[in-house]
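Kindly inspect both lines:
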Amino acid sequence: MNKILFSLLLSFLTFSSYADIAGRYDDGARWAFISDDDSNNVAVIDTFTFSYTDQIELKAKPTHLEVSDVQDILVYIDGKAPTVYVYDLVQKTHWQMKMDDIPTEITFHSDEAQLAVAMPDRVDIIKPLKREYVATITGIKSPFSMNFDNGGYNLYVSESQSGKTLIYRNHDGQRSYINVGDGNVSELTLSPDARLALASQYSDNSVVVWDLSMEMTFNTFHFNSQPWRPYVSSDSEYIVLASKNGQAQVVESWGGEVVKELKLTGAPKSIRTGWIETIGIIESKGALDIFELATDKPVQSVSLTNDLREVVVVSDSKTLFATQEGSSKLFVYNIRTNEVLKEIDTKLSKPHLLAMGITNTVCH
């Protein structure tokens, strides 16, 4: 018995020390990676201790940055080379995968092993860790947006100038098509439960909601000005909509009922939800508008010293982090206590992209 206890204790101590090895960034809910517009450097921020930790020098300046929490790799593209760049967060090694054209967007499958790589009029699916090429999808027209559903069963590729949306079944390559809106549309949004697909339709300032299980339009919401890309809370219960003139709505996602209407400080720049999906957060120029999703309490506005660039709510839904225009520091807001916290210096000249392995933003 003593030998068993000693073995268990030794295993625990070994695991604990292994988990705390300096520079081992393998906890997707903890580490945030911040790119710099002026260099190839990425700052590493500890979101548990609200502190700067390290800096990683990449092989190129990222225009898109993704993290695989499962495989502990940082994947990025630079908008210039026909290349997907990979950095191993544990082994601290770099490698590249050559593509047939210059990538414009990347997004991970839910298994975080497969990566969809958008290029002009095509999408390639690769496995960056194994350095494998899996599939090529053609017959689509750029520009387009792409999303894996939360289970990774399907990849949705939506053409931005028509609303035509390819549903590519990931395990066997079977294709089907739907139209989420017509003409010029926003990037597609999927609800985390893979039940709804949403897009803003710019020709008539509406938001079209498509029911994927019923294979029909679920509802359409009209605004007096151009709507922002729609947002769905991470529990799939609420849809948050906002338009350029500051008009906003909260919609109950199952019945399609508008449960809240509000007036924002200004035109929306980003939409997020948090604190276990009871709070809506809409950024506009100079302010964050904070409101409860399901009550009549009035909107509270938090003034911003700098406009925000990239906005992320961490996985426990309690804290919002954002890069800022004209500042080397991260803006930090405690959603649960409605409190602006001390900024975190990234030690970068112009912080921009903010990537984490796990966040509360799962509908995009």
Summary: The first strand starts at residue 31 and ends at 36.
